[in-house]
UniProtKB/TrEMBL annotation:
This is Alpha/beta hydrolase fold-3 domain-containing protein. Residues 71-276 form the Alpha/beta hydrolase fold-3 domain. It comes from the Eukaryota. InterPro entries: AB_hydrolase_3 (IPR013094), AB_hydrolase_fold (IPR029058), Carboxylest/Gibb_receptor (IPR050466). One of its GO terms (molecular function) is hydrolase activity. It comes from Clonostachys solani.
Amino acid sequence: MSGFFQSLRLKCAAFFVRKMANRAQRSGYALELPTQRQLIEIPTRDANRKIRVWAYPPPGWERSLKRPVMINWHGSGFTVGGFGLDHVWCTEAAYDVGIWVIDADYRKAPEHPFPAAVHDAEDVLRWVSTRPDLFDLDRVAVSGFASGATLALVAASTLRRASHGLNIRVPVAFYPITNCDVDPVHKNPPHRQRFTPLPVNTIRFFNDCYVPNQDDRHDPRASPDLGDLESFPDYVVFITAEFDIFAEEGAALADNLRNGRRTVVNYMVQGENHGFDKGVIRGESENRRAAAYAIAIDSLENALQATPLLFPQAPRHAGDAERLRALLESGYRGGDQHLVNRWIYLSRA
């Protein structure tokens, strides 16, 4: 019965935490940049469940369909909402690099604890692999913020080894959590400031919701720095923040990944904290976000060897929205359609 009451306690607490988070995030859902994006649902391994994704097309997508692709996952502590908050990053990546961006949702704890979010991330990778007509499967990137950055690192290491026909060339991890097995009381930011958005007790609560089984916290799908470092690609990007409690573990993983052949970008944003790029106001914070995004964009171009599609007159919201939706939802009708059907059958078995 103790497990039942613990689960009930976490669910009740999550309800109130989500209420507060939704109130704080409300302004972040207002689009700062005009863009064309389509909300669609994609299949999962469960026959009666789908995953929501925002699909951001590259500029001029109607003239050049097949382009590199990046899958992004939002931050949430694996517990609260956040789907759609990364629209500035997704828009800039799609427009400036000239790639498709798939901004994916995932199930949240404590209702859906580990490894539910990882399974959803894997299902998104599999769906991308079924659309060789749209996506260049040899040039794939992943990105994420906070817990979403953890998923991106897992996708670029443990899930990458499983190979779904995708060549994941680079993860871009913004202020990631790389090891949930370490008690947050032992995690210290490079420099402290008076206000911290993530107190120790809050982080413990998120960990208890997402990974209630202590043994699972050793799993590299929950703590990517405990996995095989050789499974990471030859280009890795970390964006951390000076006052963030997770900055040191992100920097430590970046250092451990340096092996003489791998390009590791580790950029620390000075004077900022966890979630520094969300809800920014004009001024220095906006400049710092712009600088961090510029470094990430440059790294994407290098890792994907992408040539931006230069349509300077094309506004970011241009295009036939209905045609875009139909294109994304139609499914691939090429010669290997049987492989698509086979994956859908196996994933539901």
